[in-house]
Amino acid sequence: MKRKLTDISSALFDPELGCTVFTVERITCTRSREGTTSRSMTEQARGCIHPGTPEMLKLLPEEDRQETFIVIFTDYALSTGDPGEDGASFDAPDRILWNGQTWRVVKVRDWQGFGYVQAWAVRIREDKENRE
């Protein structure tokens, strides 16, 4: 007998458990002789967003270890990016715009059998000195 998986959507979208609306920016880049061009698409998604724990921080790659990172539980299929098969185009990691800040998805755990994904995202710091 096949066991039916538990649907957690009622908890996933419960405002009392931290459900919120956020924006997902997906960037596709294409390389050519003239240079690299990018195309951006944004969509609204919803889910629970919580701060990451110190134990989770240890599991992040060294270059992504920051004290400020979030964990997102959502039914939206978030992505850490795709290098592309042809080398001419690739997808950058998804960016999450939430709470006035921008976050880059660094890890996704696919729990679609239960109706959600768990994603970890680190804050993108804007360095004003590098832009001037």
Lateral arrangement of strands in the main beta sheet:
1-2-3-7-6-5
Order of helices and strands: HEEHEEEEEH
The overall average pLDDT, rounded, is 81
CATH topology: Thrombin, subunit H
Extended strand count: 7
Question: What percent of the residues sit in helical stretches (DSSP H or I)?
Answer: under 10%
Q: Outline the biggest β-sheet.
A: 6 strands, antiparallel, barrel
By CATH, the architecture is named: Beta Barrel
Q: What is the CATH C-level name?
A: Mainly Beta
Enumerate how many helices there are, as a single number: 3
Cα end-to-end separation: 64 Å
Shape: globular
Radius of gyration from CA coordinates: 17 Å
Domain module tally? 1
Secondary structure category: mainly beta
Question: What share of residues are in beta strands?
Answer: over 45%
Low-confidence stretches: 128-132
Description of the structure:
With 132 residues, the protein is mainly beta. The chain has a single domain (22-124), classed as Thrombin, subunit H (Beta Barrel). 9% of the residues lie in helices and 48% in strands. It contains three helices and seven strands; from the N terminus they run αββαβββββα. It has helices at 9-12, 54-57, 128-131; strands at residues 19-32, 35-51, 69-74, 89-91, 95-98, 101-111, 116-123. It has a six-stranded antiparallel β-barrel with strand order 1-2-3-7-6-5. Strand 6 (101-111) and strand 7 form a beta hairpin. The chain is globular.
